[in-house]
Structure formats: structure tokens, C-alpha cells
Amino acid sequence: MNKIVKNADEAIRDIQDGMTLALGGFGLCGIPENCINALVTKGIKNLTCISNNAGVDDFGLGLLLQGKQIKKMISSYVGENAEFERQMLSGELQVDLIPQGTLATRLLAGGYGMPAIYTPAGVGTEVADGKEVRKFSFNGQEKDYLLEYAFEPDFSIVKAWKGDSLGNLVFRMTSRNFSPLVAMAGKISIAEVEELVEPGKLDPDQIHVPGIYIHRIFQGSNYEKRIEQRTVRKK
Amino acid sequence: MLDKNGIAKRIAKEVKNGMYVNLGIGIPTLVANFIPKGIEVILQSENGILGMGPFPYEGEEDADLINAGKQTVTLLPGAAIFDSAMSFGMIRAQKVDLTILGAMEVSENGDIANWKIPGKMVKGMGGAMDLVASAKNIIVAMQHVNKAGESKLLPECTLPLTGKKCVKRIVTELAVLDVLPQGGFQLLERAPGISVEDIKKATAGKLIIEGDIPEMILD
Prior knowledge:
The complex is a heterodimer of chains A (about 240) and B (about 220). With about 240 residues, chain A is of the alpha/beta class. Chain A folds into 2 domains: about 10-100 and about 150-220, 3-Layer(aba) Sandwich (Glutaconate Coenzyme A-transferase); about 115-150, no CATH class. Chain A contains 6 helices and 11 strands. In chain A, strands 1, 2, 3, 4, 8, 9, 10 and 11 form an 8-stranded mixed β-sheet that branches. In chain A, a hairpin with a 2-residue loop joins β6 (about 135-140) and β7 (about 140-150). In chain A, α5 packs across α6. Chain A is globular and about 50 Å long. The N and C termini of chain A lie far apart (about 50 Å). The model of chain A has no long low-confidence stretch (mean pLDDT about 95). Chain B has a single domain (about 5-170), classed as 3-Layer(aba) Sandwich (Glutaconate Coenzyme A-transferase). Chain B is built from 5 helices and 15 strands. In chain B, the strands form 3 sheets. In chain B, strands 4-3-2-1-5-10-12-13-14-15 form a 10-stranded mixed β-sheet, with helices on both faces. Chain B has a 3-stranded mixed β-sheet with strand order 7-6-11, with no helix packed on it. Chain B is globular. The mean pLDDT of chain B is about 95. At the A-B interface, α4, α5 and α6 of A face α3 and α4 of B.
């Protein structure tokens, strides 16, 4: 079994206008830079993107927004992007803002084969509008929960630290964030990795996403790994 | 009147030994700087850290290691990294003991609004809705009044809610207050140099004052 593709262009070759994509990353940490750039170059339009954030104006998903390639964003926090805010307030861009834990768990549900989850996040707020509310007793308390559906994106795209040709993935530090969940949810899942290795080189006990969830993998290149907020202390 | 560091310093006194604590963006992040010596707490960052440490030394920043505010951070010995579903799993399952977050408005029945100003500011709720819906204990760090001098402690929130009936304690530049289960802000402490009258003027919601209200002890 060999899931290796040459590069990002080959990995995204059949992503069509109007499809739904899920993308890993938190802020700019752990985003699939190579595939985003390939989507920008190819000019695919009318995308629905499930991603916790929307990049910044000139990097990450912000690049797809600049090209007006995104029709709808499903995110939890989009504060870092002026073009995003402009497109949203002008109505050009549809935006579904959902709680971060709900976003993560809807992706998880997709990868776990569960059509829906119940969560207390958003009860009594506008997030609950039109949703089924049900009372459950849990942890000794009775309270209301919202029914939220699993995500089933057409394509999922993640960046991992290391991966092998079978698609097994290992992430580094907090670049893990949403990526394992995104990877599990996709009908077709693409992984770009900083280091592609032979099967057997990764410790089976340390694998974060087993290769069964990954369909295409390639060694990425030229990672910028931009830092959004560089905070330091003096020695 | 307290400045931001003063609010953070007062909140740090609420942190008890052995707690797992989630700190929100802004003033709550500053609380970590004032946790008294001898108090061991483990900080959770909802992008997937338990055991978050201080900012890195200059030159040691790691693009792969950030907190929920997207700031570069470090890990303390014994830290653990996990994905976002597990992170909110432990929040939902109430394994996190204390959540400290900011607010634009709080109502006298404990509703909180902190994610949206319709037509003006729409940044999103991030993890705030999950945190307030599940947290065992929530302390809000906020300004008592806005720049126009209007109270942000209200009978009812005017902005879209983040969560209902969830806030337990509030620390502002003027006071420490508890939100009572039956409704109302109970005044517990005054900031240095602030009178009960000052707090009355700055509080639009129902304010409950019982007996003498002591001044905060910060050190």
C-alpha cells in the first residue's frame, strides 16, 4: 500500500469548486501551508471551509479569502483577519461561528462514525437557535444540551510533523490541535508532512492518527511556520 | 481603583493549591504572574496543553508551541499535549477546576456576554461558550464600567450571550462581587480607595450590601 503523492498539486488534484474542506491548525500553528498555496494557485472557488480560524490577511486561509475563493467559513474565532471581517460584514462571505469544543467534537464524531453529539455549549445563546435541546443528567447535574451534527467534509487537509507512506501521522507540540480530528473526518484525507519516513520508522505506540484515516500523503516543503504573537521574556 | 495587574493579583488569591486552571485571553492571562509561591497549579490552554509555562526566552520561541491566545509559550516539566477534542472533553467533563475569563457584560443572574457586538465586532466565541457551559467555577475579570462610564454589571445583558447563569464571582477595578444563586451582585470587597457609594454608582444591576464591606488585601 502506498499513499504517497508527489506534491500538494497532486494531492488536491480532484478538489472541485463548491466542495467542503476541513483544515487543521490553530491560528497559524500547524496549518497545511503547501496545500493552501496549491488551492490558491489552482483558483478553486465557492469552497466551504471548516477551520477553527481563518488565517491572517496575507497567510494561511487569509490567502483563499483574498482570492474570494471561500463561500462559507465554519469557525470558532476569526479575530485576526481584517479582510474576513470586511467580507462578512458586507455579506459576501457566509460565516457560521460555532463554539470551539463543538467544532472539535463534530469533527471527532465524523471520524468516530457517530452522526451527532450533545453538548451544553451555546445553550441559551443564539448558537442554540433552531437546534434540538434535550435534558440529560450527567455528573450529578441535570441540564440542557444541544444536538449538533457530525462533520463529513469532502476533503480533509492536515499538516503533520512526521508521517509514513501508510499514512500514520505524528504531530509536534500544539501544532496537533484540531489536526487529528480533521484528518479523521474527511471522506478523503490529505496529509502533508515535514518528514516522510518508511513504514516501521514511527513508534506504533506514539502514532496520533493511524494511517487508515489518511488517503494521500506527501513531504511538504518551504514551511514558513509563521508566529502570530511572538511573546518572550528576557534572560 | 485597580489597574489590570491589580485585578489579576486579586484573582490570583482565588487560585488554590492543586487546581487545574484555564486562563482566558487578556487580564486572565496575567493571573499566572501573581500565583503565590507554594501554590501549585496546572494551567490548561484549550489548544491542547496541560502544564503551560511562561513565555520563552528571546530566541527560544517555537512556532509549534503556542497558547490559546496564539502567543509563544513554554512547557513545564510534566506537561502534556493533546488534541482539541480531548481538551474540550476535559473541560466538559469538569476536570478543570477553575475558569477565569473576561467579559463585556454580566447580568445579575450570572449571564455573560463576551463574544459579539452586533454590526461592529464579530470575532467569534472561540472556546468561551464551551468553558462557561461546563466550568465548575467561573471567575470573571472585567471593567466595572465602560469608557463612557456606563455600568457593565447589568440587570440583563444587552449583547448576545455567551452563556446563561454561569458566573459565580466577578473581580473589577472597583470591587469583588459574587453572583447569588437567587440573583443579584453581592458586594464582598472594595478596591483600595473605593467607597461603597462609588460601587453603587457603577453598578446598574441589583447590588446587595450586607454589613461592612472590607477593602481588598492584595499582598
